[in-house]
């Protein structure tokens, strides 16, 4: 957590942030810059030794976010194909979290303005819908079925088809 | 926000809650008052009924009661020990009919009003019941026919009044009973007030905490518990939840729409689809009329496989590479052979796929059938049939919510000049003015909102394609002058396809001599320009579609008789090292998976 990786960026300064439950984290400035909110704070010289307080981000998701930003900041420019692949793998593994953590990340990334993470988490949430029936969707997202029985029947009639997307084994060039 | 403001807000919340409670109390009191009003009304209507019953008993008649009326009236009748609700609803024995029974609930025009004024009462049911054994609407109506009737309205009004009065009566009675022996548990005591007040206080505090948490971070409470049940995704802020739903795949739209009312409203909103496009989430998909996969290569059935080709609709994502079959058209039949496909946007960006005409796969007779697939509901329905002669091999293209068809030939093989327009939103056809010439096997494109019909041949020139084209402008409701030499004479227009709307000067693409060519508007008039050479193994491509961003998809067999492959041309605009503008073009080649390797007979592009 808060890996103090020296990156090739213009500043090696560590930025301190404080979670809503009072835990302190550190990350390189380049990593903090991935967050719109933190970048503005840094630009406005609000990043002091006491750390930037993040009101709605608890320690658990913040640790993940610091992780994410540090990784992505270290690998931001001039990626080789392998590095891009590695970053992709990192993202895929990174977002393999339970719904609670996913929601925390969604809210936190949105609040902190970490665009890449927002996209990643939003896509992951959308992927939770993939291949699911309406009933499974309700279960996953804690949604109450508020259709009347008539509406429900109508919908069932319409929804009998389950799409199966086939992808070819590989794409030749 | 400052602490004082927060506290003020919390107090405001409390006050509002208290006001709401106050209102609730008032409402309850009002209900009570209304209850006693019912009671009075009930008593009054009971009196009226009594009188009416006396008046009508000698006629032994009853008014036709609507189902609703019977339903709510029955309990009253039961109290009298007469007809039960079941009895009233049961079909009468045939012998009890007088005259012809008419349909339930519908009252025929009044037959010679005799001036008899009878306010009908529920008790009449009972009376009639006594007479014939089973009281039914038919029964009653029949009786009515026998002696003449009153004006329908009058009766209807009485019935309605009765039904409601009876229901109110019951309600009032129940309420009365409840008041008579009241339950001490129902009384709102000081203790109740304290408990409720405590709850409200706690609620107020919670709101305050939430606000504090939001602005100061004093609370460790996760924000999602602050949300109520009205959310798109419980626990997520609205805009985040919306972002998530925006990214649902086209194949998941039907299931998403069926999850809850909120989700349904969300995906049905025009805004949702506009955003999907704006964010680049909506993908250009190709809808293909494709031959079902051939039977297994082994086995005796194989050699007949070619004889009984049936087609189905398939969606292909040329960028992502996915393939998926669409459900069979309404009725479960196979797709008509040689049908035309068009994608329309109705009701605010709602994408639909329209399948027009073609030949019945069994009889090979041309069909006028229209099938409409809704990407949101994931279901097919039948559209209004195509009017006019049963046309085959016509030009077809869509603009907005309209599908245009033109030319082709009728069942006598006469090439046609006629054209028509299908409004997918109204599900209705309108005839268009005729084209200047007959155009059989012409190709339809939509270019800049106009319907362009390219090529085709008149009856006497069987198979010798004309190079001209003409365009219909829906705004002017007229065909423009015939454009000569759009194609070379004798060229089949089959691979012509329209360039996507925002393309600068390019209006259409087609395949010419193994080259992908674009038709550009130049200073000397439109001309074809070679864009890229098709790969050697892609020379038999039969379907072409431009999908935006300079990308063009070509689908066809790699070689005659081989399985279908998809060629995707991408153009990377950019400057090369010398600073001169250069467009790097490359074909990506992807063989279709075996189950989607059938012949593609028609294609259209739809963005979902």
Automatic annotation (TrEMBL), chain A:
GO terms for biological process: jasmonic acid mediated signaling pathway; protein ubiquitination; ubiquitin-dependent protein catabolic process. Pathway: Protein modification; protein ubiquitination. It holds the Pfam family Skp1_POZ. Keywords: Ubl conjugation pathway. InterPro entries: SKP1 (IPR016897), SKP1-like (IPR001232), SKP1-like_dim_sf (IPR036296), SKP1/BTB/POZ_sf (IPR011333), Skp1_comp_dimer (IPR016072), Skp1_comp_POZ (IPR016073). Residues 14-73 form the SKP1 component POZ domain. Residues 116-162 form the SKP1 component dimerisation domain. Involved in ubiquitination and subsequent proteasomal degradation of target proteins. Together with CUL1, RBX1 and a F-box protein, it forms a SCF E3 ubiquitin ligase complex. The functional specificity of this complex depends on the type of F-box protein. In the SCF complex, it serves as an adapter that links the F-box protein to CUL1. Belongs to the SKP1 family. Part of a SCF (SKP1-cullin-F-box) protein ligase complex. This is SKP1-like protein.
TrEMBL record, chain B:
Residues 234-270 form the F-box domain. Residues 19-94 are annotated as: Disordered. It comes from the Eukaryota. Gene3D superfamilies: Kelch-type beta propeller. Residues 19-51 have a biased composition (Basic and acidic residues). GO terms for biological process: negative regulation of cytokinin-activated signaling pathway; regulation of phenylpropanoid metabolic process. Residues 52-63 have a biased composition (Low complexity). This is F-box domain-containing protein. It comes from Oryza meyeriana var. granulata.
């Amino acid at each position: 957590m808060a890996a103090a990786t020296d990156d090739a960026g213009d500043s090696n300064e560590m930025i301190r942030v404080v979670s809503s439950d009072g835990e302190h984290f550190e990350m390189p400035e380049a990593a903090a810059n991935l967050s719109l909110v933190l970048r503005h704070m840094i630009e406005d010289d609000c990043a002091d030794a006491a750390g930037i307080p993040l009101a709605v981000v608890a320690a658990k998701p913040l640790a993940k976010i610091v992780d994410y930003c540090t990784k992505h900041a270290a690998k931001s420019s001039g990626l080789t194909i392998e590095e891009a692949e590695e970053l992709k793998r990192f993202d895929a593994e990174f977002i393999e979290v339970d719904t609670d953590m996913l929601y925390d990340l969604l809210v936190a990334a949105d609040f902190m303005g970490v665009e890449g993470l927002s996209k990643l988490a939003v896509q992951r949430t959308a992927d939770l819908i993939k291949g699911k029936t309406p009933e499974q969707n309700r279960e996953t997202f804690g949604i109450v079925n508020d259709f009347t029985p008539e509406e429900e029947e109508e919908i069932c009639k319409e929804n009998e088809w389950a799409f199966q997307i086939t992808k070819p084994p590989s794409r030749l060039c | 926000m400052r602490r004082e403001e927060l506290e003020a807000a919390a107090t405001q919340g409390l006050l509002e809650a208290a006001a709401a409670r106050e209102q609730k109390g008032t409402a309850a009191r009002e209900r009570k008052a209304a209850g006693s009003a019912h009671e009075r009304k009930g008593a009054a209507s009971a009196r009226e009924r009594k009188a009416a019953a006396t008046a009508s008993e000698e006629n032994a008649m009853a008014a036709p009661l609507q189902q609703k009326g019977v339903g709510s009236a029955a309990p009253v009748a039961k109290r009298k020990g007469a007809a039960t609700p079941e009895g009233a609803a049961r079909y009468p024995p045939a012998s009890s009919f007088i005259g012809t029974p008419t349909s339930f609930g519908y009252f025929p025009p009044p037959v010679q009003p005799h001036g008899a004024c009878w306010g009908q009462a529920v008790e009449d049911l009972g009376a009639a019941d006594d007479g014939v054994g089973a009281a039914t609407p038919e029964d009653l109506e029949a009786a009515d026919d026998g002696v003449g009737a009153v004006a329908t309205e009058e009766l209807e009004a009485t019935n309605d009044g009765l039904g409601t009065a009876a229901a109110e009566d019951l309600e009032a009675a129940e309420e009365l009973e409840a008041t008579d022996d009241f339950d001490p548990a129902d009384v709102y005591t000081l203790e109740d007030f304290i408990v409720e007040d405590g709850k409200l206080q706690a609620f107020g505090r919670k709101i305050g905490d939430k606000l504090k948490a939001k602005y100061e971070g004093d609370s460790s409470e996760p924000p999602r518990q602050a949300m109520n049940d009205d959310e798109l995704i419980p626990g997520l802020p609205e805009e985040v939840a919306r972002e998530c739903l925006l990214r649902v795949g086209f194949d998941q739209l039907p299931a998403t729409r069926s999850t809850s009312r909120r989700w349904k409203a969300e995906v049905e909103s025009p805004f949702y689809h506009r955003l999907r496009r704006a964010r680049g989430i909506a993908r250009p998909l190709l809808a293909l009329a494709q031959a079902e996969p051939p039977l297994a290569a082994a086995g005796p059935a194989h050699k007949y496989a070619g004889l009984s080709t049936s087609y189905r609709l398939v969606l292909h994502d040329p960028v992502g590479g996915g393939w998926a079959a669409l459900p069979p058209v309404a009725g479960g039949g196979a797709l008509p052979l040689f049908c035309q496909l068009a994608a329309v946007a109705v009701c605010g960006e709602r994408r639909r796929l329209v399948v027009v005409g073609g030949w019945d796969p069994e009889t090979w007779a041309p069909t006028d059938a229209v099938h409409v697939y809704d990407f949101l509901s994931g279901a097919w329905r039948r559209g209004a049939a195509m009017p006019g002669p049963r046309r085959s091999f016509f030009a077809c293209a869509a603009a907005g919510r309209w599908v245009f068809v033109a030319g082709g030939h009728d069942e006598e093989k006469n090439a046609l000049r006629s054209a028509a327009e299908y409004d997918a939103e109204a599900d209705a056809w309108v005839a268009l003015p005729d084209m200047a010439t007959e155009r059989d096997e012409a190709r339809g494109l939509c270019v800049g909102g106009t319907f362009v019909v390219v090529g085709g041949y008149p009856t006497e020139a069987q198979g010798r394609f004309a190079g001209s084209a003409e365009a219909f402008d829906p705004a002017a409701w007229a065909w423009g002058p015939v454009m000569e030499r759009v194609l070379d004479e004798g060229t089949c227009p089959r691979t012509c396809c329209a360039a996507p709307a925002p393309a600068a000067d390019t209006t259409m693409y087609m395949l010419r001599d193994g080259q992908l060519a674009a038709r550009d508007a130049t200073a000397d008039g439109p001309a074809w320009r070679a864009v890229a050479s098709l790969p050697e193994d892609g020379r038999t491509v039969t379907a072409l579609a431009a999908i935006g961003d300079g990308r063009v998809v070509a689908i066809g067999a790699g070689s005659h008789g081989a399985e279908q492959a998809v060629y995707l041309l991408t153009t990377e605009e950019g400057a090369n090292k010398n600073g001169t503008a250069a467009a790097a073009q490359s074909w990506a080649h992807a063989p279709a998976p075996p189950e989607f390797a059938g012949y593609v007979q028609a294609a259209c592009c739809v963005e979902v």
